[in-house]
């Protein structure tokens, strides 16, 4: 073997030896994450049961949740309109009361 080729082969062998610990570390992390994700899966199941969507397909769950969120958004918009309307009515009533007491009268 020529010297340049030998150096490249040794470098590739070293690189392979360096990746083995990383790979085993990733495998251990995967096993650990599988163990820790168990409670999250149970909490997701509990959430679906709370909404009464456990027996339905995922697409149905998606559309049902979207409908509920749209309804909630409509209620919040309606409430905002009531608050803004009440504020505007109070301002108009204040201006009218000011005018009735002669607030624009210049002596």
Blueprint of the fold:
Blueprint: H1 3-50, H2 58-100
Description:
- The structure is a single chain.
- The protein has 107 residues and is mostly helical.
- It has two domains: 1-50; 57-107.
- Helix content is 85%, strand content 0%.
- It is built from two helices and no strands.
- The longest helix is centred in the N-terminal third of the chain and has 48 residues, at 3-50.
- The termini are far apart.
- The mean pLDDT is 80.
Broad structural category: mainly alpha
Beta-strand percentage range: under 5%
Which value, in Å, is the CA radius of gyration? Answer: 34 Å
Give me the number of helical elements. 2
Total domain modules: 2
Unreliable segments of 5+ consecutive residues: none
Order of helices and strands: HH
What characteristic shape results from the CA principal axes? elongated
For the termini, the CA-CA separation is 113 Å
Q: What is the subunit organization of this protein?
A: single chain
* Helix share bin: over 70%
Largest sheet: none
Overall pLDDT? 80
Number of strands: 0
């Amino acid at each position: 073997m020529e010297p340049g080729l030998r150096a490249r082969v040794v470098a590739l062998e070293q690189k392979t030896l360096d990746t083995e610990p990383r790979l085993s570390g990733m495998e251990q992390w995967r096993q650990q994450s599988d163990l820790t994700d168990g409670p999250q899966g149970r909490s997701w199941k509990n959430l679906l049961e709370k909404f009464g969507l456990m027996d339905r397909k995922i697409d149905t769950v998606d559309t049902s949740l979207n409908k509920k969120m749209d309804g909630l958004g409509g209620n919040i918009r309606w409430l905002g309109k009531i608050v803004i309307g009440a504020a505007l009515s109070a301002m108009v009533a204040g201006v009218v009361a000011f005018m009735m007491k002669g607030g624009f009268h210049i002596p």
